[in-house]
Amino acid sequence: MHRIIAKKNKTSELFKSGSASLYWIQLFSIGLSCVWLIFILFLAFVHLYCILLKPLHFFYICMILQPNFIYNSELPSAINSSFFWVTLPPILFF
After folding, report:
1. How far is CA 84 from CA 11, 26, 44, 79, in A?
2. CA distance 73 to 58
3. Where are the transmembrane segments (predicted)?
4. What pTM value is reported for the model?
């Protein structure tokens, strides 16, 4: 019983002494990290959509309209482009 009361008093002393500002700074930094992570994930998904899905839609539409398009496909050049391999790893891992 005395330990619980001592713990409550210690906690209230921390907030009275000004250590509560440290709590708010930590809370702000965690929130900022979460917002940054969501932003990076959003950029990663937009990047994957723009690089991978748009050429795929273009590829399938042209393949249906023009069967010999498969030989002139832009899909390999989109996947093998230096832009894709240079920008994707930093977006996913940072």
Report:
1. 52, 36, 11, 6
2. 9
3. 21-45
4. 0.38
